[in-house]
Amino acid sequence: MLVEKYKPKRLVEIVGQKIIIKKITDWLKNWKSGKALLLYGPTGIGKTLIIEIVAKQNKFNLIEINASTEKVTFYVKEVLLPASKEGSLINKRLILIDEIDSFSDRGAIAEIIKTIKQSAHPVIITANNAYDKKLRSLRNYCILLRVNRVPVNLIEKELNKIASKEKIKINKNMIRRVAIDSDGDMRSAINDLEVFSKNTEFGLRDKKKDIFKTLRIIFQSNDFGKALQAIGESEKDIDEIFWWIEQNIPQEFKNPGEIAEAFELLSKADLFKSKIIVNQNYRFKKYMRDLIAGITLIENNKKFVMYKPPDRLIILGRTRILRSKNEELYKNLGNVLHCSKRKVKEQMPYLNIILKK
After folding, report:
1. Helix (H, G, I), strand (E, B) or coil at 298
2. Which of 48, 229, 264, 328 has the maximum number of C-beta atoms within 10 A of its C-beta?
């Protein structure tokens, strides 16, 4: 896999995190007991990898726990805390507590605070969200350091290097699109590049596909790379493709098992769609796209299907004029009542009842 082949082995090979690496190494040189370093930022930007390479290059023996460790509270109390008190100048240790905001054990945070206060070795913690409520007490014992996403131009530059070395035929516009879609996640970008490289024609055509061609490729190509390409080149955005897929699964598949499998993938895509709305994290669009593209791998008797537009889009089209008039009404009432259009819209059912009386 390309992601393993091009995984950084030295700090100088890590893209876009020079400032963070310097701050971490400076903190280690000047470390004083009683304070941990808390690195936080989105998943996939290299927080754990940076610590692993820092430990290796500075000859630290890395002791690590993460969210997958069983009985975290017990492990911290019985294993990590004693290990943090031992050691010597010859046996330097670096304690890494990874993905702490994913820990489910209630008592783990209290034990980790004890470890920080008593440790004879540096403690580094990683989290996606340092301001999670359950980390409130822990923050008092940490120096916070935000790790940002890798800039698009640096990801694009690295992808071009890899494509050149691996002789991948992909045009510059497509590499740019992969870099943007990765949302600062280098690992994700390299994985996408590898998927796309399986289709030798990927990126040679850059015309927008109409939705019917997009659906035909997703449902009938049995090629994950081609399905991803079709979604990327479609005239519709991923949200609208979602509704088209939902409408046409029963048209495309007749076997109940195949229908269930397709809707299972779509329901998982819908979970990521909800996360995008709630968290305003557009990085989840990549996972939504991958799940929708995965429908192509379901066994299917290829046949011609007359695809139908989503019912909800037809309804929205029919009610467009009425909705436009209502929006204008909400705006005018908002101006008179000195409140927002949204507030008027919320109160409108009650106003209708009052007016009827």
Report:
1. coil
2. 229
Please list the residues that pair with 95 across neighbouring strands. 63, 123
The amino acid that residue 151 corresponds to is P
Distance of CA 181 to the CA centre of its chain: 10
Indicate the burial class of 256 (C-beta count within 10 angstroms; 0-12, 13-18, 19 or more).
exposed
Q: What is the pLDDT of residues 128-153, one digit of tens each?
A: 888 888 888 999 999 999 998 889 89
One-letter identity of residue 43: T
Q: Say how far apart CA 216 and CA 236 lie, in whole Å.
A: 14
* pLDDT per residue as tens digits for the range 263-303: 999 999 998 888 777 766 666 788 888 999 999 999 776 67
Residue 15 phi, psi dihedral angles, 5° rounding: -90, 130
Q: Which of 198, 28, 233 is CA-nearest to residue 123? A: 28
Beta-carbon-side half-sphere exposure of residue 300 (alpha carbons within 13 Å) = 27
Strands (DSSP E) found in the chain: 36-40, 61-65, 93-97, 123-127, 142-146
Strand partners, 23: none
Residue-by-residue DSSP string for 115-165: HHHH-SS-EEEEES-TT-GGGHHHHTTEEEEE-PPPPHHHHHHHHHHHHHH
Q: Which letter, b or e, does each residue of 92-106 get, where b requires 16 or more Cβ atoms within 10 Å of its Cβ?
A: ebbbbbbbbbebebe
For 17-146, which CATH superfamily applies?
A: P-loop containing nucleotide triphosphate hydrolases (3.40.50.300)
CA distance 133 to 223: 43
Beta-bridge partner residues of 338: none
For residue 301, the model assigns a pLDDT of 67
Kindly state the tokens that stand for 68. Answer: 């997958």
Which structure tokens are listed for 138? 């822990």
Answer yes or no: are the C-beta atoms of 94 and 124 closer than 8 Å. yes
Cβ within 8 Å of residue 156, ≥6 positions away = 175, 176, 179
Residue 64, Cβ density class (10 Å: 0-12 exposed, 13-18 middle, ≥19 buried)? middle
What are the residue ranges spanned by the domains of the chain?
17-146, 152-199, 205-297, 311-355
